[in-house]
Every structure is written in structure tokens, then in C-alpha cells.
Design brief:
Number of helices: 4
Distance between the termini: 29 Å
Shape: globular
Structural class: mainly beta
Length: about 425
């Protein structure tokens, strides 16, 4: 998922990305259906027990900037008990701008069998993409880096390194030359990564060899977002700060579709229920829908929020369930299944400052995580809300369909978060539409 505060990179932000805890299955190092990270293999059984990650646990990755320090926090969310806590964190070398979950051990690319893993790709102010193994607690360096400055620059003395940093930099072949603002793994091939940068380029990386396979120069300003289509493996969407979005086949980049939006983009997502459509959220709070078959005219253009609409997320398990967040501190739930404009179903204040990002959980598609300007991650189980379930419940089958009788009749479903400062407490004013 690519989420960030594009205009104020130095502001304290939290960037969550839901992941699948089942990815720990092939990395179990002790008996039972649990995982104990590497650094704790030599600890006592009691310490191991406290640190176990169960298959039923969801993992949330959040990059956080606090003062002059940047870190990657690994949260555990216990769905049955609605318990959320930081399992461990990793100190990063630069301000993080985007994250992408990698459920495969990159060392197994190119082999006959792919090994499951727990890795995360991080884009930052540096012109490189770091790959971290989150099974390694207290890791001091990434597993691998894509691009960046040439190795010779790091082998010189500290005095020479500082001098070289101020002058002309020597980059690895195919590297970005400025901050990496967006990354996205291909839906079909997990070894193929797209990245967008402040150097105005889009790059395609092959994780099998760690090299840049292609570079595209379709934009005239910093590339803020890249998104692979869910249905067509070679279709890529890229968006830049010049308010231009390109949709193109990476095999034939000259046959691109161009879409212009009226103000700067904040977030973009393909609709998993309609392969031709995507939704954009903008700096001035608008939500814009586009059908790539009729790109000359918007599907819809609505004022979703009064302030910046920082993110848009569509559930892959509940048809039409879309969430947006804003710097006004609210989350809005929309119904995309209706013809025409999306219909607002629910609005909720999350009580933790400005919201910068959101993501639905893949395995439990009713659960939404949000990251805030106060460094908090907030989890909302929307299946507990009567209004939401009445709207979307009939669209899912089996175990995913919530029981209306178990929804909160008073419309005060709980939020899960690690902490809420007393001075930030405010009334939970929910508005139905």
C-alpha cells in the first residue's frame, strides 16, 4: 500500500498496512501454530510464550516519524479480543514515505518453490528501496536495497562520505536519484515492483536479481502514486503532482490513457469489483471516479470531505464497501455499488487527530485500520455497526456475513487503539446519511 503525507514529509505520521498473519505459517520455529522471531530463539519458554505470534493474529505495519527518528512498528491485532499492541519496532535510516508488504522470501525468487516470508519494502527520502525482514527483531540493517548510492561511496571514510553527499552523487545502475514516494507489488508476480519518485520517473524492478528492468519518463513532476491493476498484470497507473494520471501497458507505454484532475492527488485505488475503474482522493477533499474505457469524463466527482481527503480504500471482500479518511479526523464509509455517485453510509470521528491513511484487512474485510498524525493506529470493526451491516451484509456469503442481531443497536461500536491521550478525548459524534 502506498500511503503518505505528500505535502509535509517532515510531519509526524503513521502509515499502516494490513497484512496476512497466515504468512508466518512456513516460518514457524517452534512447535505449534505460532511464530517466535529470530532474536528470541535462545530465550526462556516463558519469554517465548509472551512473544508468540499466532496464526489467528493480524499484523499491522506502521512507519512512524517522531522528532528526528523514524521507525517501522510491527503491531499485533488480536481480532477475537480486539487487542492491539506493538510487538517490536525497527529503526529506519531515513524518513519513510511508503510501505509495501512482501509475503515471499525474496531469496527464493528464481527457484522452483517460493518460500513464504515476512518482509516489507520501504520507500523514503533516500533514492533507494529498503527490504526488511520483520521476523528479525532488533535488525540493524535491511535484508537488501534496491538502487541507492553506489557501494563505493559507503566504503569511504566518514569525512569523504559527507563531502560526496554534498557534491555529485554516484548511484547504482537503474537507481532513482531522489526520494521514493510510492511502491506497489504486481498482483500476479510478487517479484515485480513498481516505484514512483520525486525524480519524476516510474521504475519497474525485478526482485529476482534486485535490478531495475525498465524506467518510464511519462511525467514532468514528482510521481506520487503507482498502482498495478488487479485483473491485468501489465496495466499500471501512475499519478504525479502535475495533476496528471497515466494508465498504460508496461509492454507498450506509448499507448497510455491520460486523465487530468483539478487538484493535487492524495490517494488512488483500483476498484477490485470493477477492473476498469479507479477512485482518486484529492487535496481539496474531492473524490473522483474514473472508468478507463471512458476516461474523458468522470464517473463521479463529489466533495467527500471539507478538508484534505488523505486516503481511499476499497474492501476486497465486501462489494462496494469504500472508506475515506481526512485531516478533519474523520472516516467516512461509502457505498460504491449504487449507480452514479457513491452514497455516504456512515461518518465517524476517530478521536486521534488528523488521519493520513487507511487500509482494509484482507482476511477480515470488514476491519479497517487508520494511521494518525499523533502516531496512533486505530482499528475499526465496521461489522459491529448496524447501519453498515444493513447496507452491505447481504452482499457477502457464509462466515463473512455479520449477524444483524450482534450489531450494536445504540450505534456505538468500539474502536481499538493502543492509546488515547485524555486531552484528545472528544465525543463520538456519528452521523448517518
Amino acid at each position: 500500500m502506498c500511503i503518505r503525507d505528500r505535502h509535509n514529509y517532515d510531519r509526524e505520521i503513521s502509515v499502516p498496512s494490513f497484512t496476512n498473519a497466515v504468512d508466518f505459517e512456513d516460518k514457524v520455529r517452534n512447535e505449534g501454530d505460532v511464530n517466535v522471531p529470530n532474536a528470541f530463539e535462545e530465550e526462556s519458554e516463558e519469554e517465548k510464550e509472551d512473544f508468540k505470534i499466532k496464526k489467528s493474529d493480524a499484523i499491522i505495519l506502521a512507519s512512524k516519524i517522531e522528532n528526528e527518528f523514524s521507525s517501522l512498528e510491527v503491531y499485533i491485532f488480536e481480532e477475537e479480543t480486539s487487542n492491539l499492541y506493538v510487538h517490536h519496532d525497527i529503526l529506519l535510516s531515513a524518513f519513510p514515505l511508503c510501505l509495501e508488504w512482501l509475503p515471499v522470501d525474496p531469496a527464493s525468487f528464481g527457484e522452483d518453490h517460493l518460500n513464504k516470508g515476512n518482509f516489507v519494502l520501504v520507500g523514503s527520502f533516500l533514492p533507494e528501496i529498503e527490504i526488511w525482514d520483520i521476523d528479525v527483531v532488533d535488525a540493524i540493517e535491511p535484508f537488501h536495497c534496491l538502487g541507492g548510492e553506489a557501494e563505493s561511496g559507503f566504503q569511504e571514510s566518514k569525512k569523504k562520505k559527507v563531502k560526496n553527499f554534498k557534491g555529485k552523487k554516484n548511484f547504482k545502475p537503474g537507481s532513482h536519484t531522489d526520494a521514493v514516494l510510492s511502491i506497489n507489488l504486481n498482483t500476479f508476480r510478487k517479484n515485480i515492483l513498481a516505484s514512483g519518485s520525486a525524480d519524476e520517473t516510474v521504475k519497474i524492478w525485478d526482485l529476482t536479481n534486485g535490478e531495475c528492468a525498465h524506467t518510464y519518463y511519462q511525467h514532468s513532476s514528482k510521481v506520487q502514486a503507482v498502482k498495478w491493476n488487479y485483473a491485468e498484470e501489465s496495466i499500471l497507473l501512475s499519478a504525479a503532482s502535475d495533476k496528471v494520471l497515466n494508465i498504460f501497458d508496461v509492454k507498450d507505454p506509448n499507448s497510455s490513457i491520460t486523465v487530468k484532475i483539478p487538484t493535487e492527488l492524495e490517494s488512488v485505488v483500483w476498484d477490485p469489483w470493477n477492473n476498469y475503474n479507479f477512485v482518486v482522493s484529492t487535496e481539496n477533499g474531492q473524490l473522483i471516479g474514473v472508468d478507463t474505457r471512458k476516461a474523458s469524463k468522470y464517473l463521479f466527482q463529489v466533495q467527500g470531505h471539507t478538508r484534505t481527503a488523505t486516503s481511499v480504500s476499497i474492501s476486497k471482500g465486501v462489494p462496494g464497501l469504500m472508506a475515506t479518511t481526512s485531516t478533519d479526523g474523520s472516516v467516512k464509509i461509502w457505498d460504491l455499488n449504487d449507480a452514479g455517485e457513491p452514497r455516504l453510509i456512515k461518518q465517524r470521528k476517530m478521536k486521534t487527530g488528523k488521519l493520513h491513511c487507511s487500509s482494509f484487512y484482507h482476511d477480515s474485510p470488514w476491519i479497517l485500520a487508520c494511521g494518525s498524525s499523533k502516531g496512533d493506529v486505530v482499528v475499526w470493526d465496521t461489522s459491529e455497526n448496524l447501519k453498515i451491516v444493513e447496507t452491505f451484509g447481504e452482499r457477502v456469503e457464509g462466515a463473512l456475513r455479520p449477524d444483524l442481531n450482534e450489531c450494536n443497536q445504540d450505534d456505538k461500536d468500539d474502536l481499538t487503539m493502543r492509546q488515547i491521550d485524555e486531552e484528545d478525548e472528544e465525543s463520538d459524534d456519528d452521523d448517518d446519511f
